[in-house]
Amino acid sequence: MPDITKQIRNPETSSPETLDQQHDMAGWNRETGERVAAEEGVTMTDAHWEVVDFLRRHYLEHGPASSGRELAKALDEAFSGHGGSRYLHQLFIKGPVAQGSRIGGLPVPPYTEDESFGSAM
Fold this sequence. Notes:
Arc Repressor Mutant, subunit A
């Protein structure tokens, strides 16, 4: 059962039934991605763009992910040859799903960022 506090605090991203209508795939470009990456503290390399391109293709082919875990599994499989999750977290310190989605101009999947679990940072 979903945590009601998450739904009250952020109804736009706390429910898998809610699609974020603010994201416009056609309006995004790499320049926009570079700007968001700089705000996120990420210096984009070809490796970063490979992940962002995967996320955007995945979104176009499958639509919004029902959860961050679903998308993390897809990323882990796609990048297993590079080291999977460990490799991805080295590229995106705040999480490949959350940061990669924001940089790629995509909605962050529900349950990707859960402040109720705290942080090691």
